[in-house]
Each structure stands twice: as structure tokens, then as C-alpha cells.
Design a protein that fits this description.
This protein is α+β, with helices and mostly antiparallel strands. Helix content is 17%, strand content 31%. Pfam families: DUF179 (PF02622).
Amino acid sequence: MSFDSAPINLTHHFLIAMPGLEDESFSRSVIYLCEHSARGALGLIINKPSDITLKSLFDKVDLSLRREDLTREPVFQGGPVQTERGFVLHEPMLMDKAETDESAYASTMTIPGGLEMTTSKDVLEALSTGAGPRRVLITLGYSSWGEGQLESELAENAWLTVAADLSVIFDTPVPERYDRALSLLGLQAWMLSPEAGHA
């Protein structure tokens, strides 16, 4: 690929780690890309649960959690950057009676393709009352790439990419998400060689 070709935009795609990627944070990871532009990329790992449950996270920020469906859900390790900060990936929550497509929460990135990512506490407050988005994935930390960095890693065969399927994020058991993401490409883990092929 030459550098003057059109830039790729992998927003709302999964990055699937190739077997040769042995970095502790990223080995066998599936990352949902929230943003990808010429300036770089930002995403959340969706298949690396931490040992913290949502209930204990809410206890830490002095909120009760009145959503029985969420209390035992894990908080995920979203990536190695800002691991003390929470990131909430969720279905869009638009303002009531809003004439614009404005999110209901203060610090929200709207991801073309159907999700939002919120970093403000108001989304947790909504969840604590039993309201808020129905489907959520909460991470501590995120993954990021500087300008051209992700493109270089793709050229080095570190990642496979595929359009995101929300059922992998919200409906697939955590241990199955890597294989399920691969299956979107018609692949299984045993088909992948850890060696990058160079002619």
C-alpha cells in the first residue's frame, strides 16, 4: 500500500490480535475501535475482564447499582492507557424531546455505526437508579495509537480487522469473543500462523 492511497477508517471495527502479538495487554484481544482518523486511533478491549465487578466499581464511586442484570458483570481492562479512568460503551441514549442527535450524557463520543462511549459519571448515576442504557460494557483504561501507528501495525500483520458486530460485545460470553470475532472473517484460531509472511 502506498502512502498516497486513500486513508483507511476503521471506526466501528474490531481489531483482532494475531497469534504473533505477544504484548501482555493485547495478546488474544478483540478491540472495538471508537475512533480512527489521520491523527490516530482509540479503542476498548472487549474480551479482557478484570477481577472487579460492576457492583464493586459502583461501591467505589459511592453509587448503588439497582440493575440486577449488571451487578455481577465484570469491568473490563480496556487497554493500558489511563487505567484509573472509566469508559462506558453503550447503546445511544438521546435527550428526550431533543431536536438534535445530542447524547443524554455530558462527555460522550458518538461512534458512527451505532454506539456511544461516555466518560462522565452521569451515565453511572443513571445506571445506579435502574435507568440508563440497557446494554453497556464498562472498562478501566483504553487503547490508543498515534498518527500512522495503527497502520504500521496492520502492515506488520499484528491485527486482523472486521466490521464490528454488536452481538459479539453484548451477547457473546467473554471467553468466546475472540473466536466469535474471528468467525466474522470465516476464520478459526488454528488457521492463523504466528509468523508474519513476507515475500
